[in-house]
Amino acid sequence: MSKEEIEVEYIEGSDYMELIKATQKHFNIVKDIVCNTINDIYPNYYPKGAVDFFLTHHSDENIKNAIQKNEIYLLLEGNNFVGTGSVKENEVCRLFVLPQYQGKGYGHKIMDILENLLFKSFDEVTLAASFPAYNMYIKRGYFPIDYHKILTENGDYLCYHVMKRIRQK
């Protein structure tokens, strides 16, 4: 696939990373990043019922619908897709970085671009923070505004914070 076929935003200060808007051609890439991250990382933070809930929430249908609505972006480093993030109105959602690339700043790169995009139209950005990502969001200036606890089919609980960051003026 040529770069002319996809919308590209180059990452400042980098000549090898770019954030592209996902198309239906990228469905399997997005799905793999999401599922691999949930399956590898989330069991360290959540019980099985919550992990299963996340996998169901990020179903094929939900991902395809988000791609169709132009909500999903992919981070490409060289020839490797390393992460994904989505925007929906003033919300950042579905932020995942493959486990082998975590802790190297890729999540921050994705967030930098998505926040800049959203702050052009909104005074605040919201997100639902999973336990693994909570500290990253705190460091970025987000603060919790709500706490949710969902009972899953297994009788396990999925807990997360809704967080907000206000645009700096």
TL;DR of this structure?
This is N-acetyltransferase domain-containing protein. With 169 residues, this protein is an alpha+beta fold.
Q: What is the topology?
A:
Layout lengths: L7 E3 L6 E5 L5 H15 L6 H10 L2 H9 L3 E6 L2 E9 L2 E7 L8 H14 L4 E6 L4 H6 L3 E9 L5 E10 L3
Parallel strand pairs: 5-6
Antiparallel strand pairs: 1-2, 2-3, 3-4, 4-5, 6-8, 7-8
GO molecular function: acyltransferase activity, transferring groups other than amino-acyl groups
InterPro entries: Acyl_CoA_acyltransferase (IPR016181), GNAT_dom (IPR000182), N-acetyltrans/Recomb-assoc (IPR052564)
Protein name: N-acetyltransferase domain-containing protein
How many domain modules? 1
In round numbers, the mean pLDDT is: 91
What is the CATH superfamily label?
A: Gcn5-related N-acetyltransferase (GNAT)
Strand order, sheet with most strands: 1-2-3-4-5-6-8-7
CATH first level:
Alpha Beta
Structure annotation, total helices: 5
Distance between the termini: 40 Å
Oligomer: single chain
Q: What is the string of helix and strand elements?
A: EEHHHEEEHEHEE
Identify low-pLDDT runs: 1-8
What Rg, in angstroms, do the CA atoms define?
A: 16 Å
**Largest sheet at a glance?**
8 strands, mixed
Q: From the coordinates shown, what is the CATH architecture?
A: 3-Layer(aba) Sandwich
Number of strands: 8
Our estimate of the beta-strand percent is: 25-35%
**Shape, per Cα inertia axes:** globular
Classify the fold: give the CATH topology.
Answer: Aminopeptidase
InterPro entries: Acyl_CoA_acyltransferase, GNAT_dom, N-acetyltrans/Recomb-assoc
Organism: Clostridium vincentii
GO molecular function: acyltransferase activity, transferring groups other than amino-acyl groups
Domain N-acetyltransferase: 17-164
